[in-house]
Amino acid sequence: MRVISLVLLIAVLAVQGNVPTCEESKALESTCGGYCFNVVKSLLDHSKAMQSELRYCNPNSESNIDALIEQRFKTLEAKVEKRLKDLPIKLPADIYPYEQIGSKFYLIEEGLYLNWSQANRLCLLTGGHLVHLQNRSELNAIIPRLSNNDYWLDINNILKEDDYVSKTSGKAPPFFAWFPNEPNKGQERCVELHNKFSVYAMSDAKCDSSYFNIICEKEFKD
Ligand SMILES: *[C@@H]1O[C@H](CO)[C@@H](O)[C@H](O)[C@H]1NC(C)=O
Ligand SMILES: *[C@@H]1O[C@H](CO)[C@@H](O)[C@H](O)[C@H]1NC(C)=O
Q: Mutation test of ligand 2: which of 12, 84, 117 has the most ligand atoms closer than 8 Å to its C-beta?
């Protein structure tokens, strides 16, 4: 969970202009060790922000240090954004807790509350993709692991209202399990797995809704 949060932190850094706090930086260093810390660290080193941050961690530092850091990070935003684009799509597999459920591997992330594009991006960053359900048995295997109400799937009809497409395959999804009276379409162009009275089935939702949980799926080679 922590690692995922950190990945997310990196991912939203450019968009929201947030900076990692001392605590987060330390967590980043100790959690990621080499790889992803280096990615972030090189950004920080680049404008000597690292140095400021060390002082920021010191309670005896000057009182206007917050403003100074904020100013420095503002100028960093563009660089961070550029660097974010250079991030490799695949990060080391072993730091992400994908688990085997049935015959497939999934990462179930609850409580991050992302819109569809953010969820899609998060799955890509972990080397996977949003869950691509093949059939009823795959869905039935996952359901007992879920404890929230809304999870994004890899399906949307953003390009054409009548054509649902799996983001993973680029083709029509192999399996649907809609709730009665779903999909109701209109502005709802992304597909979710929704829980109503302990029944999980598909429903369409607005892609920019940001209260959703995530199921990523990943193919591991034997
Ligand atoms: C469902 O798909 C899985 C692959 O994930 C396959 O092994 C299984 O045989 C399929 N089950 C049915 C009932 O089609
Ligand atoms: C998802 O959220 C991000 C960050 O807030 C935003 O930039 C993006 O436009 C949103 N995507 C959609 C489809 O609303």
A: 117
Q: Give the residue from 76, 156, 160 showing the smallest Cα distance to 119.
A: 156
Q: Is the CB of 207 under 6 A from ligand 2?
A: yes
The model carries a pTM of 0.64
By the 8 A CB rule, do 176 and 185 touch? no
Question: Chunked in runs of 10, what are the mean pLDDT values of the chain (222 residues)?
Answer: 45 43 50 46 44 45 51 54 52 70 93 93 92 97 96 97 96 98 95 97 97 93 62
Q: Is 118 in the pocket of ligand 2 (CB under 6 A)?
A: yes
Domains with residue ranges and CATH for the chain: 3-86 (no CATH), 99-218 (3.10.100.10)
Distance CA 87, CA 138 (A): 32
Q: Which ligand lies nearest to the CA atom of residue 12 in the structure?
A: 2
